[in-house]
From TrEMBL:
Listed InterPro entries: FTHF_cligase
Source species: Parnassius apollo
Record carries keyword RNA-binding: yes
GO cellular component, one term: cytoplasm
Species lineage: Eukaryota, Metazoa, Ecdysozoa, Arthropoda, Hexapoda
Name of this chain's protein: Methenyltetrahydrofolate synthase domain-containing protein
Amino acid sequence: MQNGDDTPAAADTTKKPLPEEITKQSFRLKVWRHLETNGLAMFPRPVFNRIPNFKGAQEAAAKLAELDVFKNANTVKVNPDKPQEPVRAICLEQHKTLYVPVPRLQNGFLNRLVLPEGETGPAAIRKAVSRNGMETYGQPIGIEDTVSLDLVVMGSVAVSKEGYRIGKGRGYGDLEFGLMMHMKAIKPTTLVATTVHDCQVFDTLPAELFGPHDVPVDLIVTPTQVIETQRMSQRPGGILWHLLSNRRIQLMPILGQLREVEMLAGRACTLKEVDTDVEERTANRPRRPRRRTRSHKSQSEGEGNTTEGEEGKGGKPRRGRRRNSTKSKEGKEKDVKEEKPRRPKRPRPVIDFSVKISNISPNTRVRDLKQALSERGVKPQVMVWKGFRGFCFLHFFKPGPQKGEGDSAPAINMESVLAALAEMSVGGSGGGGGDGDERDDKPRLLSVEPAPPRQPRVPRHPPAQSDLQPDPQTNPQEVH
């Protein structure tokens, strides 16, 4: 073959892979990248592998609330993702019956959010619709309970005006819908709506990408428009067992419970043999046994946060001393030899950056600040609380090695944290100052600024005489 004939052939090979990229994942990546690169993404970030939170989510929720389909709905099911949090809040404000799925269907199915008696204010509603509040105020609903829904609000990564919807790729929304179909909670008049940014709406999506398990949407609500879709596909009639593997059933106990009911009723529930289900990527990773390096309270308080008292106690736990004496009898010497060697100590996490929050009211509690941080999607690994002095420090560790895009914990940086905490206010919790001044009970606008790098701790062993000489460049009064 001549050289001139080789060139067109090489050009053809570069064009062949292009049709293979037209997948659901290619549309997800297109949307995620557009939101991130154009400053449209909101916390939690990055939005990869999530139902993305976007600028204008509040406006989209308000526009949905203006529709008759929302005004006339008494029972509403809303997904637990961050961009639909304003929709959940409006449902409680208008005294609608609100159902929220259990995240990832790991510990149940639905929760009915019920506010505590006497707590119906905006602060109580914001707390109830947050991630922690949905677990605290949620009343579990099983597949054996009777539920009738007027409106279903789903989160989406991409949607089309034809009614096709693409989620984050884990199948939770489709499985939730199938379970609700089994409960007969979905009526023919039940509408399915989604709130998204305008850039997430496509005129058309390839029909061949969608199967009988994909849930179509009837309404698309953005911050600027309301779209009634053509709905080119039918709703799934229930759980399609032949599309699920046994491992997916084990990950979601509610599916196993439903399968037992279906099998007792004589229905076919054959699972597929080839395991191609998509689930949490960390599910298959073996978990290392936790070593208790601190008290139980410090490990469970907050989400990976510690307070000043825990930080000051040091990283080493108190353990009973084990004395291995080789001077005793032969039996004891044998026991010493059979003891397993101790595991090497894990390296101490390295702090990537720190943030200082000041202008804190003396009456503000640490849990109030933690709640405010959680609502804004900021989760520091360590919090050093100096609230009685009007400030605190947030420390963020360096992320571990990434094995792929979105495969590890979402990376954060100083700029994103400062942007998330801008204009944050926290009010005092108490009766004000002793002199009758009530200013501390009002919300305070907190000052957020980068903190200097944290210095390493001083070793515990006694320093040598040479180390006791003062260093003219070191300030002994510096507080880390």
